């Protein structure tokens, strides 16, 4: 039976299915391991199996020290620093490593493989520092930390914070294991940190792209913008896939709008780009994120350690661990996300300017009240921060391993900063929904389109209209909870 395919859209369900299958069935792992043991018994020099690593690849290691070679590999490479990888992403890392090893090209020993399965089954999540990988021989330092508990070192997450791995293992009646030949190399070579960050963020971007279309539709109604730029004929003659999807979403959200009818013959010729070019900007973002998701999905189902063990017994050393495909794709994803926030902030600004009957700063009595001025400041600050974060890490390289690893991808930097950009963008989205909801209140009793009306109603069920300054943070948090879930999209009919 072929292994289950891991997808970005259903990441967590697919990973759970893969882990369940591996607990019940590991013949590919056993067969691959038998080939490694046969090669070692035959006396061949095999990189990382009975030789040193990197610049030390010419050093042969005696057979009676191969287990120590693998143990030393984990200990020497566990030099990660910085804040820990978020627990949810570490869980993805662990399952991706299990999935890759389970494909049967890595030659890992069954006791080591089964102990990693124990970690997953018992919900033992290692503490992994987020910095230290250059994304070349895979994510060496982070993966070393992920696997340190196998030999009794490192830490696991517990309710009260990190706890020593040895203590957590004892609680479950487990002890350290002895790594066999090639185990350490199979464990720490690979792109699982980069892949986990990318997949974790891009899974959420499926929802985020629809939410930005909804926020734009809410702003367009509040600003009495035109629906004509969403005419399907425009997008048929410039047929980028994302353009048409965005235009169709907005048309659906604006169906039966009384606000649109009220200004159909107003004489205004054009809206600002932040309204008129929503299909082009949001659509380009969709297409960029789809490309990045495709690259990540390929990686989720790939074997990225080294050397690899094939069915004919060949053990081949190559470069599948190099993170360049991910580095480029994750940089591109960050840039696409940043542009969503950039155009969203411009719509927020426009909502505050007092156009077409809206009060300036979206409160009637300003002066005494600052109104919605400062949420726009926050959006502007996050958009500006994203500009710094979106400098592509993938254009950098710095030699390591005494020049043996002379071109590196820096994909781990692309991955870590992608999450920061995503979090900033989610906040800007919440600010637009909060601000557009306030503006829509001033269009009553005219009703917006069905989808916009339903979303606006849900926001108002969670927080009231405001006509005096208050602690904006509380309302923003309530809207943030809405945009992080499915309720708003379901209400609007985009779920």
Task: Please describe what this structure looks like.
By secondary structure, this protein is mainly alpha-helical. It folds into two domains: 11-190, Fumarase/aspartase (N-terminal domain) (Fumarase C, Chain B, domain 1), CATH 1.10.275; 204-492, Fumarase/aspartase (Central domain) (Fumarase C, Chain A, domain 2, Up-down Bundle). It is 57% helix and 4% strand. The chain has 20 helices and six strands. The protein has helices spanning 11-24, 27-41, 66-77, 87-102, 110-121, 140-147, 165-171, 183-188, 192-222, 232-236, 241-253, 258-262, 273-276, 278-300, 324-352, 373-389, 411-441, 450-462, 472-484, 487-492, and strands at 81-84, 129-131, 155-158, 161-164, 308-309, 315-316. The strands form three sheets. It has a two-stranded antiparallel ribbon. Strands 3-4 form a two-stranded antiparallel ribbon. A hairpin with a 5-residue loop joins strand 5 and strand 6 (315-316). Helix 1 (11-24) packs across helix 4 and helix 16 (373-389) runs antiparallel to helix 17. The radius of gyration is 26 Å and the shape is elongated. The two termini are 33 Å apart. The mean pLDDT is 95.
User: Biggest β-sheet: count, sense, barrel?
Assistant: 2 strands, antiparallel
Biggest sheet strand order reads 1-2
Distance between the termini: 33 Å
| CATH H-level superfamily of the largest domain | Fumarase/aspartase (Central domain)
Blueprint of the fold:
Elements: H1 11-24, H2 27-41, H3 66-77, E1 81-84, H4 87-102, H5 110-121, E2 129-131, H6 140-147, E3 155-158, E4 161-164, H7 165-171, H8 183-188, H9 192-222, H10 232-236, H11 241-253, H12 258-262, H13 273-276, H14 278-300, E5 308-309, E6 315-316, H15 324-352, H16 373-389, H17 411-441, H18 450-462, H19 472-484, H20 487-492
Antiparallel strand pairs: 1-2, 3-4, 5-6
Helix pairs in contact: 1-4, 3-6, 4-5, 4-9, 9-11, 9-14, 9-15, 9-17, 9-18, 11-14, 14-15, 15-16, 15-17, 16-17, 17-19
């Amino acid at each position: 039976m072929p292994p289950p395919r891991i997808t970005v859209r259903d990441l967590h369900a697919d990973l759970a299915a893969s882990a369940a299958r591996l607990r019940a069935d590991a013949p590919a792992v056993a067969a691959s391991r038998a080939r490694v043991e046969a090669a070692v018994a035959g006396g061949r020099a095999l990189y990382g199996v009975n030789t040193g690593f990197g610049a030390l690849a010419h050093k042969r290691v005696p057979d009676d020290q191969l287990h120590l070679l693998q143990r030393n590999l984990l200990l020497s490479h566990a030099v990660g620093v910085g804040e820990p990888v978020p627990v949810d992403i570490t869980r993805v890392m662990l399952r991706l490593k299990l999935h890759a090893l389970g494909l049967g090209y890595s030659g890992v020993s069954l006791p080591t493989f089964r102990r990693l399965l124990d970690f997953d089954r018992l919900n033992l999540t290692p503490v992994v520092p987020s910095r230290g990988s250059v994304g070349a021989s895979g994510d060496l330092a982070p993966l070393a930390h992920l696997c340190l508990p196998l030999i009794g070192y490192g830490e696991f997450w517990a309710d009260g914070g990190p706890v020593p791995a040895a203590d957590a293992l004892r609680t479950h009646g487990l002890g350290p294991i002895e790594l066999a030949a090639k185990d350490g190399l199979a464990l720490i070579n690979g792109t699982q940190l980069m892949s986990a960050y990318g997949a974790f963020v891009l899974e959420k971007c499926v929802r985020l792209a629809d939410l930005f279309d909804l926020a734009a539709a809410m702003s367009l109604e509040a600003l009495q913008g035109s629906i004509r730029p969403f005419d399907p004929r425009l997008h048929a003659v410039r047929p980028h896939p994302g353009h048409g999807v965005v235009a169709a979403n907005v048309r659906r959200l604006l169906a039966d709008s009384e606000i649109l009818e009220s200004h159909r013959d107003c004489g205004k010729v054009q809206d600002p780009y932040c309204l008129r070019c929503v299909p082009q900007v949001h659509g380009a973002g969709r297409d960029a994120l789809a490309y990045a998701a495709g690259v990540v999905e390929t990686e989720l189902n790939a074997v990225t350690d080294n050397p690899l063990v094939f069915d004919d017994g060949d053990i081949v050393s190559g470069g599948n661990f190099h993170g360049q495909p991910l580095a480029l794709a994750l940089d591109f994803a960050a840039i696409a996300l940043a542009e969503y926030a950039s155009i969203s902030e411009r719509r927020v600004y426009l909502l505050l300017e007092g156009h077409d009957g809206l009060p300036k700063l979206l409160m009637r009595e300003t002066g005494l009240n600052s109104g919605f001025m400062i949420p726009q400041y926050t959006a502007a600050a996050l958009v500006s921060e994203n500009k710094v974060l979106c400098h592509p890490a993938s254009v950098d390289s710095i030699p390591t391993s005494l020049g043996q690893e002379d071109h590196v991808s820096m994909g781990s930097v692309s991955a870590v900063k992608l999450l920061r950009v995503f979090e900033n963008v989610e906040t800007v989205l919440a600010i637009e929904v909060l601000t557009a909801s306030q503006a829509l209140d001033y269009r009553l009793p005219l009703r917006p389109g069905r989808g916009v009306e339903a979303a606006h109603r849900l926001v108002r069920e969670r927080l009231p209209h405001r006509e005096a300054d208050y602690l904006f943070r509380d309302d923003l948090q309530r809207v943030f909870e809405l945009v992080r879930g499915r309720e708003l999209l379901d209400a609007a009919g985009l779920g």
